[in-house]
Write a structure and sequence with these properties.
Layout (H helix, E strand, L loop, with lengths): L1 E3 L12 H4 L3 E4 L5 H5 L2 E7 L10 E7 L8 H11 L19 E4 L2 E4 L12 E4 L6 E3 L2 E2 L2 H9 L21 H5 L18 H5 L7 H11 L7 H8 L13 H5 L6 H22 L3
Helix pairs in contact: 7-8, 7-10, 8-10
């Protein structure tokens, strides 16, 4: 049960949008102030858009740091299992492979399973990925992100059929090495939701995660749709809205470099565009 900081008679419509997330509650764990002082405080964003009476808010929980694992995900699981079972968040592999537990922790987008919980009793804050519609608490709607990923055809495309008896499309060691730093992306959307350009134009701009994967297929020596792929991402704001700000690379929990990948992709598209214009006589 949470101890509300404001009257229960206050309705959602009584608050301007900017003030809604400043609404704060403390979950009643039956702790004294002395006990709280010895524990780690974690403020977690709570929201249930399907409930018109629900007010988006931060709820404070206290955990014993000595009885919790080292990562933010460990703290979330402990809170859900032992304190408040109504808390909602995504998680799966716990190894930084699935990308499910992406969220904002202490001001930085990261994977909760890879982000260490500060080894102190100072307050930590957990909130959903920025710029995404919240389904409940820390769970955001990834539908649009996945639709954008699907739009780049993220799979090998060939025009030449395999020869009789051929089982694989071979690739040199040098060409295979070009894919390092690209294929490891787990599509967690930390980079995309950290990008100001994506905040401004999420419908038009594909974002760093999707564009880095587009680049991964453009440079794959086994793929035979390079020109078509470049044509598909050109024009409008799909690629051009990248201004090389670089926050995407700072945000990546896998230590990849989407900023560099997008820079290379923009160069390849420019070459494609100039070649096309020359062939058409412009």
């Amino acid at each position: 049960m949470a101890t509300k900081a404001m009257s229960t008679g206050v309705g959602l419509s009584d608050f301007p949008d900017l003030l809604k997330v400043n609404y704060h509650e403390e979950f009643d764990q039956g702790l004294t102030e002395a006990e709280k002082a010895k524990m780690k405080r974690i403020d977690i964003y709570r929201s249930n858009p399907s409930d018109p009476e629900d007010i988006p808010k931060y709820v404070s929980y206290y955990i014993n740091r000595d009885e919790c694992g080292p990562m933010f995900l460990d703290a979330l699981i402990k809170i859900k299992d032992e304190i408040d079972p109504t808390l909602s968040f995504r998680r799966s592999c716990r190894e930084g492979i699935c990308g499910s537990c992406a969220m904002n922790m202490d001001g930085r987008h990261h994977l909760a399973c890879l982000c260490s919980l500060p080894d102190n009793n100072e307050k930590s804050v957990i909130s959903p990925l920025m710029g995404m519609f919240v389904l409940k608490d820390l769970v955001v709607d990834m539908t649009h992100f996945y639709a954008q990923y699907k739009s780049i055809d993220p799979y090998l495309k060939r025009k030449t059929p395999k020869k009789e008896g051929e089982k694989e499309y071979f690739q040199s060691i040098e060409d295979r090495k070009k894919l390092d730093g690209l294929y490891e992306c787990v599509l967690c959307a930390c980079c995309t939701t950290s990008c100001p350009s994506y905040w401004w134009h999420p419908q038009e701009y594909l974002g760093p995660a999707v564009l880095m994967q587009a680049y991964r297929w453009v440079i794959d020596s086994r793929d035979e749709y390079t020109e078509e792929r470049l044509e598909a991402i050109g024009g409008d704001m799909k690629l051009d809205e990248c201004y090389q700000i670089g926050i995407c690379s700072l945000a990546c929990p896998k230590h990849l470099n989407p900023r560099e990948a997008l820079s290379n992709l923009k160069d390849l598209y420019l070459e494609h565009k100039e070649k096309k214009e020359a062939e058409e006589g412009f």
